[in-house]
Amino acid sequence: PILSQLNFSLGSNERIALQGNNGSGKTTFLKALLHDPQITITAGNWHLPDRSKIGYLDQHYQVLPPDKTVLDLISTQTPQLSSQEIRTFLADFLFYTNEQVYTLTKNLSGGEKVRLILALICAKPPTLLILDELTNNLDLETKAYLLQVLNLYNGALIIISHDHDFLSQLRLDQAYQVAKNTLNK
Fold this sequence. Notes:
Blueprint: E1 15-19, H1 26-33, E2 54-57, H2 70-77, H3 83-91, H4 98-101, H5 110-123, E3 128-132, H6 140-152, E4 156-160, H7 164-168, E5 174-179, E6 182-184
Parallel strand pairs: 1-4, 1-5, 2-3, 3-4
Antiparallel strand pairs: 5-6
Helix pairs in contact: 2-5
């Protein structure tokens, strides 16, 4: 087993960080929370909100289909918005130009992918936000912007990051250390 004897709970507005060495089980723990079919849970009880109420940003951006544009994805997620409202919404996530909104996701930079995933999440705000290594591949401007967005978010938050400076600027309630097959406060 990667992790064993866990005792973990998260309040509706609680904000926590998961820290630990690479390969310690942080991402596996998140995938178990998300009921990933590739993860086998051998014991215990899990109670999570409906999957549709969870916003998830994975460290490899696998939630983005490579053959869709930024505009395609947001338009699908927000059919109630007019074209102008969609463009204004995208501008809130730093997608301003036609070139940016018509770019295929496979051609976006890491920072642009993070901003797009957060825009998709914000289009239907979740009650739980799970972010796995979101600061990888980000420039300073995007990091600063993400700090603003995340500090305005009022739901529960679980974040994995090795960026201690970034974590110190979030309104976190607790940090858990994942080490030696356990999860500790």
